[in-house]
């Protein structure tokens, strides 16, 4: 049985090294501009850092994938074409693309560069994935977080020539991936085009009368009592008034964590388990990569004896939004 890959995020070179040191089989990162969907100040890689990162990963037998998962707009596609060319020149192990124009360009110009279809393309059924295979020869699809483990297995049975990558841990987007406009309504900056949801420059924390209020682009996202843990203000995880009460109307803060159903997910035929969080710290990358590595190795040591260790859950919960976790749509309770 081919072992599933542990794929870790890297927002900078120290995080990439931490992923390598803690057992990642592959890492993914983006360039320092709007061509990737974690375009936060101070994050991401220059071309020379990307070259160093790929060399470091390769020297340790780890793959390095470049992310280009935003959507170029009319009049300014050059940064996206340039980023594809740079990824090819640096001989990345794969490029993660969402936009059809970039898929076409990469497929025609750099046929040797394996393409992974980004989660931002929202391809969650066999017909859509086959379309991308036929036209752009994608090697892998990163599945949107809207499928259950049995649904992933059915997809795998239908798609012998496309690898499946799924999210194993990290923050959740509740929207159809690549289609969220919530943040841009209040900040004027789009996750899909400029690559940033809830940019730091639009965030405000206000203390008054013993309460902490978090705002995004001026909009009140949540109000916290003294001593209560405050989450980073994101609209989908805001506490709003509806039906005469104040609560998380769209989504509770909490991280996806699939350890509970790791055997079902691996046995569904996935090739890669992805950790979300290029915007998180080096310590987050190290901790989550190490824990997922341990869980995956424990499964392969003896699949029938696999059990989730309480220490893994405690460690991962400490890194989670809201210090709690969820199986998200793997449970099939909402889609
Ligand atoms: S607002 Fe929420 S659902 Fe939309 S992009 Fe941001 S994190 Fe994702």
Automatic annotation (TrEMBL):
GO molecular function, one term: peptidase activity
Keywords for the protein's UniProt record, in alphabetical order: 4Fe-4S, Hydrolase, Iron, Iron-sulfur, Metal-binding, Protease, Ubiquinone biosynthesis
Cofactor(s) required for function per UniProt: [4Fe-4S] cluster
Keyword match Protease: yes
Domain of life: Bacteria
GO biological process, one term: proteolysis
Pathway stated in the Swiss-Prot or TrEMBL entry: Cofactor biosynthesis; ubiquinone biosynthesis
Positions annotated to bind [4Fe-4S] cluster: 173, 180, 197, 236
Ligase as UniProt keyword: no
Family membership noted in the UniProt record: Belongs to the peptidase U32 family. UbiU subfamily.
Physiological role: Required for O(2)-independent ubiquinone (coenzyme Q) biosynthesis. Together with UbiV, is essential for the C6-hydroxylation reaction in the oxygen-independent ubiquinone biosynthesis pathway.
Subunit relationships: Forms a heterodimer with UbiV.
Entry protein name: Ubiquinone biosynthesis protein UbiU
Organism: Candidatus Magnetaquiglobus chichijimensis
Lineage: Bacteria, Pseudomonadati, Pseudomonadota, Magnetococcia, Magnetococcales
Gene: yhbU
């Amino acid at each position: 049985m081919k072992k599933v890959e542990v794929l870790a995020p890297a927002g900078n070179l120290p995080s990439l090294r931490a992923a390598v040191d803690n057992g990642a089989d592959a890492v993914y990162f983006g360039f320092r501009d709007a061509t990737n969907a974690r375009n936060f100040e101070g994050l991401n890689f220059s071309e020379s850092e990307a070259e160093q990162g790929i060399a470091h990963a390769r020297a340790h037998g780890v793959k390095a994938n470049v992310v280009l998962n935003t959507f170029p707009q009319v009049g300014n596609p050059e940064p996206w074409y340039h980023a594809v060319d740079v990824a090819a020149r640096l001989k990345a192990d794969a490029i993660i693309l969402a936009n059809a124009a970039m898929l076409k360009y990469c497929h025609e110009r750099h046929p040797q560069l394996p393409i992974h279809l980004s989660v931002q393309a929202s391809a969650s059924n066999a017909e859509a994935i086959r379309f991308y295979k036929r036209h752009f020869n994608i090697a892998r699809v990163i599945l949107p977080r809207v499928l259950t483990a049995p649904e992933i297995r059915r997809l795998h049975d239908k798609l012998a020539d496309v690898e499946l990558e799924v999210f194993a841990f990290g923050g959740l987007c509740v929207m159809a991936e690549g289609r969220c406009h919530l943040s841009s309504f209040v900040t004027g900056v789009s996750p899909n085009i400029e690559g940033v949801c809830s940019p730091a420059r639009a965030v405000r924390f206000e203390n008054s009368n013993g309460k902490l209020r978090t705002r995004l682009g001026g909009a009140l996202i949540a109000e916290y009592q003294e001593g209560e843990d405050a989450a980073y203000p994101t609209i989908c995880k805001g506490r709003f008034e509806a039906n005469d009460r104040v609560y998380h109307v769209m989504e509770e803060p909490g991280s996806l964590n699939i350890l509970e159903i790791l055997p079902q997910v691996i046995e569904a035929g996935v090739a890669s388990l992805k950790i979300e969080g290029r915007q998180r710290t080096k310590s987050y990358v190290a901790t989550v990569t190490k824990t997922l590595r341990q869980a995956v190795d424990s499964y392969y040591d003896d699949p029938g004896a696999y059990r989730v260790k309480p220490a893994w859950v405690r460690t991962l919960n400490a890194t989670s939004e809201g210090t709690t976790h969820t199986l998200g749509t793997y449970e099939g309770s909402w889609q």
